[in-house]
Design brief:
alpha+beta
Length: 76
Amino acid sequence: MTEPNGKAEAWYVTNEFAQVKLTIDRSGNDPRLCIEDLSSDLRIYLDAFMLASLTTATEQELARYMDPNPRADDVC
């Protein structure tokens, strides 16, 4: 979806721990979700397959990405 000025519509999701901006990137073959961390300007692009796989992940599997200070043995 685009705004009248031609730019991609953005959604902002924030709480006391994080602020992210969500947009749809249509520059490739298929649309991808772009998630941008507004505090670090880091971005990740997730296609439909990657997003669908998140629905099958357990809370424990996702939790390892929530820790801002991973242990050395957790890092590949």
